């Protein structure tokens, strides 16, 4: 108790409150409150890190420290140890809530591999969940095959489980049965955060060939050379074809892109009759999505943009030194003009064979009317051949070239069609003798045999530079340097 006296002199008494204990309790409450809030915030952050970390895997570390060649100790084990009490059910629900699905449509086998590889890289880069690709059934080829009919889906998913999440199909709640419609769009990045399901119906706009991080290039390597494996049925028959061919001796796989769709859409009619040229033109006009309608065939040919005709191919093979006894496997669909157009080539090389000639009709029956599955057989034979020669450098040719480089730079003759057209015309009009023609053809292809070389880079014209899939040098070398394999000065950059 404290006695106080006022200014008037009146004496009074005042009980002093216990000030110190009250202040102490207040501080303890504040500390306790801060600790609780901090703990809640920390646990929330840890849960989010766990989820994001499991989705990103290795890319999580790469984004945080992209310049570190040897990343620090992984964070995921620590995060998992601190959050082991979180139930699998709540964890699964949380991950489902933030998951964004990417579904894609891919075209024929010739384009399928690089389309799938690129979309896996996009999925990894943007931290999405990939739905097993669907095949476009509305294209010229009218093939109703599914992804499962061509590739081993289980192997595909298992091979990439450390890179991305893959599901066989969309969850039911996102199906059209429940009134859900996938969002189709050009790949505009900000929209990814607003949609749950995205569908790319055109995936042939390729990723860049160069200037891509080594990690993403390695992902493309993994998809190309490990994850995409044909079904056991296709592999079994493909291996049989290769075995039968090798028993008959060395063979050349000739990828002749002299097929109706190629000629119609490219406008290449050299060697065709007027009636055939008109038929091809009408086919081109019948497909509205093909924008270029009026095409001058000879201009295209002089620019090297047309496949060689069967007659031209016969002359080039002879000039390159392949004798009459060479076994030639035609890796292609139906040649336009059929046996009439093949007559000159067959006369020069009587040992021409096709898969239909080497297998029983019953063995091919399950693949009939499925162009992608038939192409898969040709793909296997082309990779296994002693020499591979494409008469047009389309998607199929590029992918086969890349696989043959990966398998030890197997001989692949990449025809310089622009130069060859000039030489063919000079020889056929009598300007070049046969010996001069042979010398010129061989000289033009000395460095076009699939030897080790760096990918050609054209900084301001990316569409004209070499494709990653034709020369996947990052897949051929350990680490980031290819000097041991390609040589430090072996650069194909174009200023």
UniProtKB/TrEMBL annotation:
It is found in: Membrane. Belongs to the glycosyltransferase GT106 family. The chain crosses the membrane at residues 32-56. Pathway: Glycan metabolism. One of its GO terms (cellular component) is chloroplast. InterPro entries: FucosylTrfase_pln, GDP-Fuc_O-FucTrfase. It is a single-pass type II membrane protein. It comes from Populus tomentosa (Chinese white poplar). This is O-fucosyltransferase family protein. One of its GO terms (molecular function) is glycosyltransferase activity. Keywords: Carbohydrate metabolism, Fucose metabolism, Glycoprotein, Glycosyltransferase, Membrane, Signal-anchor, Transferase, Transmembrane, Transmembrane helix.
């Amino acid at each position: 108790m404290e006695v106080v006296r006022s200014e008037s002199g009146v004496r009074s008494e005042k009980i002093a409150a216990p000030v110190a204990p009250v202040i102490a309790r207040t501080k303890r409450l504040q500390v306790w409150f801060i600790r609780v809030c901090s703990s809640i915030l920390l646990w929330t952050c840890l849960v989010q890190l766990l989820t994001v970390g499991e989705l990103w895997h290795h890319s999580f570390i790469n984004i945080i420290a992209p310049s570190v060649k040897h990343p620090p100790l992984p964070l995921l084990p620590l995060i998992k140890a601190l959050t082991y009490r979180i139930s699998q059910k709540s964890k699964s629900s949380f991950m489902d809530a933030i998951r964004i699905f990417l579904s894609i449509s891919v075209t024929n086998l010739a384009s399928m591999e690089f389309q799938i590889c690129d979309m896996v890289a996009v999925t990894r880069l943007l931290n999405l969940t990939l739905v097993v690709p669907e095949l476009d059934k509305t294209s010229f080829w009218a093939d109703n095959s599914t992804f499962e009919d061509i590739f081993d889906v289980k192997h595909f998913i298992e091979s990439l489980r450390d890179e991305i999440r893959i599901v066989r199909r969309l969850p039911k709640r996102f199906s059209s049965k429940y009134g859900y419609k996938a969002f189709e769009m050009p790949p505009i990045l900000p929209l990814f955060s607003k949609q749950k399901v995205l569908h790319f119906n055109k995936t042939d706009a390729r990723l860049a060939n160069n200037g891509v991080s080594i990690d993403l290039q390695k992902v493309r390597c993994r998809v190309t050379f490990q994850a995409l494996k044909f079904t056991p049925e296709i592999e079994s028959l493909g291996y049989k074809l290769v075995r039968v061919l090798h028993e008959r001796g060395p063979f050349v796989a000739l990828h002749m892109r002299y097929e109706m769709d190629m000629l119609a859409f490219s406008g290449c009619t050299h060697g065709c009759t007027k009636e055939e040229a008109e038929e091809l033109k009408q086919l081109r006009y019948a497909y509205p999505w093909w924008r270029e309608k009026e095409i001058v065939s000879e201009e295209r040919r002089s620019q090297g943009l047309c496949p060689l005709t069967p007659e031209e191919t016969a002359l080039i093979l002879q000039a390159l030194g392949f004798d009459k006894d060479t076994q030639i496997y035609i890796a292609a669909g139906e040649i336009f003009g059929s046996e009439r157009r093949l007559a000159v080539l067959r006369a020069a090389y009587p040992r021409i064979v096709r898969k239909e000639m080497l297998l029983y009709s019953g063995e091919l029956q399950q693949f009939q009317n499925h162009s992608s599955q038939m192409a898969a057989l040709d793909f296997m034979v082309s990779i296994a051949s002693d020499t591979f020669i494409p008469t047009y450098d389309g998607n199929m040719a590029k992918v086969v070239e890349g696989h043959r480089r990966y398998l030890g730079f197997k001989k692949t003759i990449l025809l310089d069609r622009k130069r060859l057209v000039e030489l063919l015309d000079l020889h056929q009009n009598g300007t070049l003798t046969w010996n001069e023609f042979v010398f010129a053809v061989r000289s033009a292809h000395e460095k076009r045999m699939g030897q080790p070389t760096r990918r050609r880079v054209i900084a301001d014209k990316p569409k004209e530079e070499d494709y990653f899939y034709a020369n996947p040098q990052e897949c051929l070398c350990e680490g980031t340097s290819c000097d041991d394999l390609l040589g430090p000065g072996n650069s194909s950059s174009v200023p």
